[in-house]
Amino acid sequence: AQKITQTQPGMFVQEKEAVTLDCTYDTSDPSYGLFWYKQPSSGEMIFLIYQGSYDQQNATEGRYSLNFQKARKSANLVISASQLGDSAMYFCAMREGLTNAGKSTFGDGTTLTVKP
Amino acid sequence: DVKVTQSSRYLVKRTGEKVFLECVQDMDHENMFWYRQDPGLGLRLIYFSYDVKMKEKGDIPEGYSVSREKKERFSLILESASTNQTSMYLCASSPPRGTGYTFGSGTRLTVV
User: Fold this and answer.
1) Residue B75, SS3?
2) Considering chain B, what is the average pLDDT of its residues?
3) Do A101 and B105 touch (CB under 8 A)?
4) Which of A5, A45, A91 to mutate to probe the B interface, most B CBs <10 Å?
5) A44 interface with B at CB cutoff 8 Å
6) Which residues contact B3 (CB under 8 A, 6 or more apart)?
7) Which helix (H) or strand (E) holds A96?
8) Is pLDDT above 90 for A99?
9) Residue A97: pLDDT above 80?
10) Residue A4 has what pLDDT?
11) Interface with B, mutate which of A99, A104, A106, A111 (most B CBs under 10 A)
12) In B1-112, which residue ranges form alpha helices assigned H by DSSP?
């Protein structure tokens, strides 16, 4: 079974608008972490934001926020005030447990295109 | 300000060659990882290491081996390169139970 599902292969957003990228996950471990990464066309993966399974509040990092709905097992990324430089592929990832040396499982990614 | 360095950005090798992909990090991270990225298949974990001389198989270890003799260096070895190992290889590191990975810029390997 797929542990991380990103159902949107591609998304378009107008510059300066907000956009939500969907991610659902599957785990029976009560301890886990959820991550979002950005991969521009240059190829380097950039860590954006982290949410722990026990965190009470949704994570935020600048224009990025993670909409964490534990009961639904979803961890959507919200990008506010989109910029042309946000055009990239975005990956959701999950790390299960606290003692597994931090290995993560990645979703297939969503390509975001920001229109001027 | 480079933190994870992969030795080559592009590499072309012949079938049957032994190939070494090197990764060095300067953040004193315990954990290091090798992923390969293929269109439509996302990122798949090949091997990872949580300490010097320690290694664990990931999801697709067949045809690969790794070496971690020093904390900062994690090498991926293709014992006998094959065309189906043509891919983008990404190295990453993280502290234990840390937050996100820090990735290198990737090595695009072509096996002909």
Assistant:
1) strand
2) 93
3) no
4) A45
5) yes
6) B25, B26, B27, B93, B102
7) strand A88-96
8) no
9) no
10) 95
11) A104
12) none
